Amino acid sequence: MVSDSLRWFASVCLIGLLFMGTSPLLFSLPLRSGELTTPQGVRILQNKSFDDSVATRQEILEVYQNLRVTDVADGMDLIGLQDIGVMKREIRPLWRDTDRFSHRFFGFAVIVRHVPTDVWVGQNSFETIEEAKQWKSEQYGRAPDAWLDAVKPGDVGVVDADGVNDCGFIGSNNSLGWARNGVVGVVSNGGVLVYPGDVVVAEGDGVIVVPREHALEVGQLAKEINTGDQQSRREKYEDLGLPLDETVRDKE
């Protein structure tokens, strides 16, 4: 015979299963005593103002010159920004230079948003091939790289292309044109909030984003960490009789 308490538990489970079939938000929880925090709706994030002078940009870039993602993450930890700015582990370089690590890049974020197309073509769309070619040319003109007008040497393109699943959007022609305008690298769909001007550091270990207001302090702390680690590892290389590689060789 089922007791009242077990019958109550079974009825709660049944109700829960019924609710799960529609929405988990239908579960009713007892109110707690104390201060409440009510969730807020969607809001528009405002860009932050910052010093983007040539001198300030150069100062920050020089500090980050030889830093690794792990150094920068340690620097973020030291100022209380743990677990902030690290992109998903799936975000990796498509190509790696294991000798000189030239796949690594860093710079200031320029934000780009790609959206799915609002125009589709199919049978009976054009009378002639020439009309199709003309239409294709016009469509490319609808989506110019207008963001390049805001690019400065040392910038990183951060592209949000969520929802664009039916085509590629970074080809060799695109990337060469971006590089010609001063873009040092591109990161796409990393799952981290990035503001224009934030510092992006990317290499084989992944990608990390440093808020611009903390960029110089984090960079200086990370440089101290990197220097100490480099010296320690260099001593071990020498003790083991190993040739010095790019990771421990003195850099100008």
Strand content: 5-15%
Helix run count = 6
Rounded Rg:
26 Å
As a percent range, the share of helical residues equals: 25-40%
Form type:
globular
Distance between the termini: 82 Å
Count of individual beta strands = 5
Largest sheet geometry: 5 strands, mixed
* Biggest β-sheet: strands ordered side by side in the sheet: 3-2-1-4-5
Mean pLDDT: 81
- Are there runs of 5+ residues with pLDDT below 50, and where? 5-28
Question: Helices, strands, pairings?
Answer:
Layout: H1 4-20, H2 54-63, H3 69-78, E1 105-113, H4 129-142, E2 155-160, H5 172-180, E3 183-188, E4 199-203, E5 206-210, H6 215-240
Parallel strand pairs: 1-2, 2-3
Antiparallel strand pairs: 1-4, 4-5
Helix pairs in contact: 3-6
Can you walk me through this structure?
The protein is α/β, with parallel strands linked by helices. Helix content is 34%, strand content 12%. The protein is built from six helices and five strands; from the N terminus they run αααβαβαβββα. The chain has a five-stranded mixed sheet. The longest helix has 26 residues, at 215-240. The termini are far apart.
